[in-house]
Amino acid sequence: MIAEPQPTAGAVFSAQEFSAWMQQCLERTESALSRWVGVGAPAGLGEAMRYAVLDGGKRLRPLLVWAAAEAVGGLPAAAIRAGCAVELIHAYSLVHDDMPCMDNDVLRRGKPTVHVQFGEASALLAGDALQALAFELLVPENDGTAEEIPAALQARLCRLLGAAAGSQGMAGGQAIDLASVGKQLTEDQLREMHRLKTGALLLGSVRMGAACNPQVDPAAWEALTAYGQALGVAFQVVDDILDVVADSATLGKTAGKDAANDKPTYVSLLGLERARAHAEELCAQAHAALAGSGLADTRALAALADMVVRRTH
Amino acid sequence: MIAEPQPTAGAVFSAQEFSAWMQQCLERTESALSRWVGVGAPAGLGEAMRYAVLDGGKRLRPLLVWAAAEAVGGLPAAAIRAGCAVELIHAYSLVHDDMPCMDNDVLRRGKPTVHVQFGEASALLAGDALQALAFELLVPENDGTAEEIPAALQARLCRLLGAAAGSQGMAGGQAIDLASVGKQLTEDQLREMHRLKTGALLLGSVRMGAACNPQVDPAAWEALTAYGQALGVAFQVVDDILDVVADSATLGKTAGKDAANDKPTYVSLLGLERARAHAEELCAQAHAALAGSGLADTRALAALADMVVRRTH
Description:
homodimer, 313 residues, Farnesyl Diphosphate Synthase, two-stranded antiparallel sheet
């Protein structure tokens, strides 16, 4: 076999290469999630946990973890666990968000939401158990096999996940969101809310991937942080755009609900055209960060930024 | 000053000594919780988190962590964090348990429950944020001070907490509980439900305390595990008894709700007198485990077992 040419900075994936990369990463993720989620749990709880996580979702966060880990030459066993852990935090937040006391949504990923399918109490518990499992995945007992993850890396991944998920991350952003319904927000306030609500976990994904190499170059860490921040905002801007322009069937969730709930969004604040331009600008910032990272191969990260901005659901 | 005599195996605390020990441990716990909970969170969320955790609760779990850590000569900085982490898991579970879709309770520790005070959505988020914070507390950045906790210990504490809190621990037990309302359970099924629902976190407290000395003797570890298991069951038996014999004012929560909710309990299964005898038997088992632990000073653990069985609320 001929060795593939070593990619150099600035090289890009063809659509086919990216698709193959995604395919492989998604298979690895689905297989790991299926092996870990709900296993050993009491029957009803395990079923609700698996329903909430498996067979659905774009897996953007595990893709980001993996792409960042590859870019820095991180430990694969750590990257796969980190990717699944972040996805479980994302999944639990959707389960709780969809509940009647929050967004009261009945459709998610084209299926009835967890509380519709299993009842509210089970949805609450399944979400709680998924959060605990996220942290558990990061701290496997070291057993002397090739899958060992050094304790310092385990602890660091927990630290990054906790910061991304907790009151100064995702949960904090949701609380600001809750308090802001029906209020007029400035662009700064809206940005701060989303920096926490969606951005923290996306940035956390990139950082956890980068942390999979404990010797990662500090300049690369900073560049990947800048990339993750730009991508996090871009994701939310596009989400707000899609909520307006796409239909529920395409989204796999209820469209138009931000306006219906009188929630401030980038579209309500900037208008559709300026929101679109803002998303493209953020995408360019993400690419610029990668170009300045000093990392040899950031093709997957670059392609993921494009995907986030150009997605239709 | 004359040095106090070194306690020997089998020595017991006087009521006064135990009271002083408790006092000191509770002050340390309250002060740490106040320093860590809700700080840096968006205002409304931080307030709900602090309301759920501060100024209330017996702090049994932190007391157990600290007593076990003392018995094995564990690292104090780790024990204080572990105690607070376990208490946060306990507190979040109460917040979610009290919600209308679960037990729908309006009174807790003599105060309105979190969802009554702040609304359901805020209660849901505060619980979620408390769980994330529990794990965050266990993995502080090591900064070269005396408070440093080795990474291996950080990871191990996360592992023990995750197992105690998640689908194979507390959350799993709650799911069995939920599925068993209105059903006839055998004593074995009831015991299994409580082993997870209440027992896992109490056992987890003892184990996390014991883990604070990474070189803890394996025989002592096993003995403390047996102690924690007996104590966990005893706690629930007494809880079931108090639900029947105490009034709401004494309990600080709604009394008689198990019968009202048609929940199987040790009292409904064994009757009041046999339930009481069972609690005493479990207390004796806990003492026997300590006596065989090979540890020089288990006075606090012994006194805590007595307190659990003889409490009136």
